[in-house]
Specification:
By secondary structure, the protein is α/β, with parallel strands linked by helices. The protein has 2 domains: about 1-295, TIM Barrel; about 310-395, Chorismate Mutase Domain, subunit A (Up-down Bundle). It is about 45% helix and about 10% strand. It has helices at about 45-60, 85-95, 110-120, 140-150, 165-175, 205-210, 220-225, 235-245, 275-300, 310-350, 355-370, 375-395, and strands at about 25, 30, 35-40, 65, 100-105, 125-130, 155, 180-185, 215-220, 250-255. The strands form 2 sheets. The protein has an 8-stranded parallel beta barrel with strand order 3-4-5-6-7-8-9-10, surrounded by 7 helices. Strands 1-2 form a two-stranded antiparallel ribbon. Helix 8 packs parallel to helix 9 (about 275-300). The protein is globular and about 65 Å long. The protein starts with about 20 loop residues before the first strand and ends with a helix. The chain binds phosphoenolpyruvate and manganese (II) ion. Manganese (II) ion binds near residues 42 and 223.
């Protein structure tokens, strides 16, 4: 396990080409230095809840949602999802709220046609990230079917009772069938040793998956931890576990959110409320910034001197390319955040331009720049452009 995984061909990492498994769907870049929180309903129950959830995501600047239509459930008496019937309202409301990508699980190949048809009907108001649930990680015919189509990217969830290598091969099935736009999602593994949480959290595997494969890596703290237990400090197990994945470099999080968790038909007890979402996102942003800082610090440590100058030269070139791609992805993220800020400022009747706040942010950037040895003048020029651009986006 520490080296290659036998049979992992299309998705194995090329150590000289970091981030090359990144892809863009409907304008959303997954992997390659980007970061997204995919948040929303574990299962779609009502149009009203879709509307309320997507509106909250828009206010929070989130452009990637989850909305389950088909739910594989342990008991046949449990809610099975509304199926294709809910697709029109999900896609229409997603379009109305600027949601670019909706993650939804399929349990049969025919669901791909249902999704494609409803998306066409909606005028392609959004797009879909097709999810393969943990229970289907070894449903090989389904894996081949989602791999045989190229319209939708796929999120493969780790099998709950199989090894990591076996789960990665589930993703390889998709790629082998032709669709290499695959992300991998950790969600905990099934064992009583995970108690009192729903599953034993496996987010220590974030760096392992990134090292072994080129897939963007997602983590699902909601299904890993299970029912929420509110903590006094305001940081529940859900927050801590999400932070573990993010600080270790996860490219995406998948998290359950519901306007009224106590009335949800599926997994309500593990969902964040709409009011809790901004705080969760703020906490995640802290973990992401910490990851970035750790990565920068590690990158500034010189690599071991290479014997061959040409090899070192090529490696450094690749590093430039990877860093530049990350800079571009971060600029895109900065722009999305600036747009989201418009809503937040409007809600609080806060002025678009706040000179005192700008001075404060500028001082913090300079202090960090000095600490990390970034040239003052370069920093000033870069941020003059970024701040000017952000103001423009906010109409200031
Ligand atoms: C889900 O994400 O809705 C889900 C059912 O998760 P899992 O397949 O990981 O149990
Ligand atoms: Mn669920």
């Amino acid at each position: 396990m520490s080296h290659d995984i036998e049979g992992l061909r299309r998705l194995a990492r090329d150590p000289d080409a970091p981030g090359e498994g990144a892809f863009v769907e409907n304008g959303v870049r997954l992997g390659g230095g980007s970061f997204h929180v995919v948040a929303g309903l574990c299962a779609v129950d009502s149009k009203e809840n879709v509307e309320r959830t997507f509106a909250a995501l828009e206010r929070a600047g989130v452009i990637t949602a989850r909305a389950g239509a088909w739910k594989p459930r342990t008991s046949p008496y449990q809610f099975q999802g509304r199926g294709a019937a809910c697709l029109p309202e999900v896609f229409e409301r997603a379009g109305a709220h600027g949601i670019k990508l909706v993650a939804m699980e399929v349990t049969r190949a025919e669901h791909l046609d249902d999704i494609a048809g409803a998306l066409d009907e909606s005028g392609n108001a959004t797009s879909v990230l097709v999810q393969i649930g943990t229970r289907n990680a070894q449903n090989f015919e389904l894996l081949k079917a989602v791999g045989a189509q190229s319209r939708f990217p796929v999120l493969v969830k780790r099998g709950m009772g199989i090894t990591l290598a076996e789960s990665l091969l589930a993703a390889e099935y998709v790629a082998q069938a032709g669709n290499e736009r695959v992300c991998f999602c950790l969600r905990g593994v099934r064992t009583h040793l995970g108690e009192p949480q729903r599953n034993l959290v496996d987010f220590a595997h974030v760096p392992a998956v990134k090292r072994l494969t080129r897939m963007p890596v997602c983590a699902d703290p909601s299904h890993a931890v299970g029912p929420r237990v509110r903590s006094k400090e305001g940081l529940d197990d859900l927050h801590h576990v999400a932070a573990q994945a993010v600080i270790a470099g996860a490219d995406m999080l998948l998290v359950d959110v519901h306007p009224q968790p106590e009335q949800a038909l599926c997994d309500g007890p593990q969902a964040l409320t709409l009011d809790e979402l901004p705080r969760f996102l703020a906490d995640v942003a802290i973990a992401r910034a910490a990851y970035e800082e750790r990565r920068r610090a590690a990158a500034s440590i010189p690599a071991a001197p290479a014997g061959d100058a040409a090899v070192a030269f090529e490696a450094l070139r690749r590093r430039f390319e990877a860093i530049d791609a990350t800079l571009v992805a971060l600029l895109a993220e900065r722009m999305d955040t600036s747009r989201a800020m418009v809503h937040a400022k409007q809600a609080l009747a806060h002025p678009i331009v706040d000179p005192a706040r700008e001075r404060e942010a500028d001082a913090a950037r300079r202090a960090l720049g000095q600490k990390l040895g970034v040239d003052d003048e370069v920093l000033e020029r870069v941020f003059a452009s970024v701040v000017e651009w952000s103001r423009r986006l906010q109409g200031g």
